[in-house]
Amino acid sequence: MAVKEEERLELFLKIGLDERTARNTIANNKVTNNLTAVIHEAGVTEGCNRTIGNLLYTVATKYPANALIHRPALLGYIVTTKIKTPAQLEAAFSFLSSTASESFELKGFEEACGVGVEVSEEDIERTVNEVFEQNKGLILELRYRTNVGDLFGHVRKRLPWADPKIVKKLIDEKLYELLGGRTAADNEKPSKQKKERPAKVEDKKVADDKPVQPPEDLNPFLIFPNPEENFKVHTEIFFSDRPVLQCCNTKEVLDKHLKRTSRKVYTRFPPEPNGYLHIGHAKAMFVSFGLAKERGGCCYLRYDDTNPEAEKKEYIDHIEEIVEWMGWKPFKITYTSDYFQELYELAVELIQRGDAYVDHQFTPHPHSGDKWCIYPSYDYAHCIVDSLEDITHSKLIDEKLYELLGGRTAADNEKPSKQKKERPAKVEDKKVADDKPVQPPEDLNPFLIFPNPEENFKVHTEIFFSDRPVLQCCNTKEVLDKHLKRTSRKVYTRFPPEPNGYLHIGHAKAMFVSFGLAKERGGCCYLRYDDTNPEAEKKEYIDHIEEIVEWMGWKPFKITYTSDYFQELYELAVELIQRGDAYVDHQTPEEIKEYREKKMNSPWRDRPIAESLKLFEEMRQGMIEEGKATLRMKQDMQSDNGNMYDLIAYRIKASFTPHPHSGDKWCIYPSYDYAHCIVDSLEDITHSLCTLEFETRRASYYWLLHVLDLYQPYVWEYSRLNVTNNVMSKRKASNHFLNFLVTKKLVDGWDDPRLMTLAGLRRRGVTSTAINSFVRGIGITRSDCCTIRLERLEYHIREELNRTAPRTMVVLQPLKVVITNLDSGLVMDLDAKKWPDASTEDSSAFYKVPFSRVVYIEQSDFRMKDSKDYYGLAPGKSVLLRYAFPIKCTEVVLADDNETIVEIWAEYDHSKKTKPKGVIHWVAEPSREVDPLSIEVKLFDKLFNSENPAELEDWLADVNPKSKMVISGAYAVPSLRDAAIGDRFQFERLGYFVVDKDSTSERLVFNRTVTLRDSYGKSGK
Q1: Where does the Glutamyl/glutaminyl-tRNA synthetase class Ib anti-codon binding domain lie (predicted)?
Q2: All domains of the chain, ordered by start, with CATH?
């Protein structure tokens, strides 16, 4: 894909289009150009939510061409959510189309589009109830075959500006309330009765003497795939009493077929010998013989002779002769009756499976004589003989597909996309991290994407097995009703950290999603410790997590531990073995890996159930050494999903490492894959929300709940949150990023301000409000752009601290200035503002600063040589001391080396008539020959030089050696003496700072939280 196309794809994905729609759009130059222009006009090049994105896409494809002058105005209504539904947008198109390029009154436009009209959910529910009441008889008759679009249309006709999502939700709920769960019969597709109608006659023009001929070089057989492509699903069969069956060849079956046929095309022309051939058969011959000839293959002439009463030897002879006259030469002449023995044996097999019928006819057969008195039907014999003859292309199917789909497109010839290899995390564009990134409107609710608990009756996922039908996982009506009764239909979520370290900013997103959804829906969120690995877990981490969750502003409904359910998990594991869905295995980790790579079953997979039960009990009692046995789930070792390769359910920890919560009661521990989904179900979680790396685990998650007949939560995955120039994960291969940095003392503990741990951010002075604002700002989408620039986080920090941190003055690198025209004993108390917009009448908005003969300024605010673009102090130049007076440098005192500046002499302008351009901060001696308040200041920079150090082989070599600077001799104004640990300030012209926990009564220590503006420049480096 060209660079330009990649940029456009990224742009389209940012506005919420799914990847398929985005790629299809790029294939259409007109729509691509329109959509690109619309995105730029709307000012959302850095992204927007999916609802707005879909409306923008509609504008790009349907906006009236005669009213382009008004398009920017319409886009303004969309991005501010004044127009937020397709119905409003269609009304806008209609209004603007009639207005064209003329000006119009906004009031008339807004009335026509329903701007400002709010339809309450109660109004919608009342209207839905009325529509259902009026159509109740028809709905009860048709059940789930009722045309929901008609119901939707009735509601929309009465309430044109109602939110379509709410309308759809209420209609679905009402259907479920009226009809109950779907039955097998509801899933059947109704058989359409074709009306008898006259055969369509081609237009007279087509039959002219010289009809249009297709070019000779057009190949009519290009629509057909090659034999080796016959691995795709042929059709889906919907049953009334069992799951959907997807029919396709297994790799083994297809490989054997290709070997038998040498990958050649095999077709057949299969007329029934019950009369003379007509011109319709000429087309059939052309298709089957023609395809075989064009591909260098073979075509059978096969007599479909399964109806002896209608067949004659005369017709057989005629067919053979006429096929030759038509110019076709059969590869072989066969009869369906040639296969009567095979068909009979397969029929017996069908009977043994419970599926066959017998027809007692004794008419002598024109080919096989009176050997048989039972005859296979066309529907039975036709497909089997096709298979026995290794037919690659069955005309009936191919013609039907062509009739339905038309010719094969380029997209049809694409090979199925392979599973994506893990690749470096995508870093968001620098533009997104500008000082003022696009913020979602406050009234946008990020949780609208999640369904309500009563909607959890739909299929969660389909699991494709190599040896059994597709499994569609969903809750039955009975299971869902019991769950809803237990939970009173409330939302239940969980935040399930593993207590193996301190939480980082990625966990802040997880908290926002789970706690935030529960809070928004009036539900409950568990804080659940996923404590299934005692060797890595500590009481310290458990205590920290509980404390930091509270600091982040979240209140758990209940605090639980996976270990609280160890007994239930054990009992369900026993049940799993009893059902034949688990077994005790003795393979080593290396052997398990090797067998998985080869898709081979464990030698112990089919051991007797009783034997596995006995061994599992011995595992529980500590009678088997660690590493000598595991309990594995019996899933599908030939699956295309590696997370179905007989995952481990239990392993032995024979060292009896004391568990930080459950003690030494257990020596076997459940795996995450086994315990996570079961505890979700036991806690009646309605929404199980996790990051995208768990998406492939959906199959194992729902498989386990299905085989145990447990309630199935709704699962949704979102992108991980990483921040540039730092590491988040507590583990990577043999190195645990954060653990390694902490244990090797490369940083100053889990709360080092350079880390993206929440404790580190807090110590750095970041507020929980700023973190939650940052998380809300980036959204909870599934976008793969999950590495966010540090500058974007800093923007939210500045926004928060600008409102909440009072101003004060500190000089980091003091340079002494002696004001020679000020009496040495005089100290003036001046007013300095804590807040820039403070009212002079509000005394609490000011603090006192002493102004005396000796003041200190930053060394960087003085130069020996002045320049036009320099606003600091220089010999003979004036600057304004903030909140005080202008001063002018009159002399510079140098050390013996004639270079080092010892002090500066200056004069101040008490009248303030001098108006210098430069304004600088300062700190003065509080009284004669008494130094100002001395403090320690720590300045922090990016911990790593690279944006994405986690992707580097030698990530430790990327640590920034200048990421921390300690300044011991900084001077501060006297009012800071009373600052307490955790107090935040803006040091004027320097940045935002917080009082560090290392502070003592004798000496204050400050950490810089963030500079006043992006300190890394426009490049982001």
Answers
A1: 805-909
A2: 3-113 (1.10.8.1290), 121-186 (1.10.10.2420), 264-407 (3.40.50.620), 453-720 (3.40.50.620), 737-804+936-1010 (2.40.240.10), 807-931 (2.40.240.10)
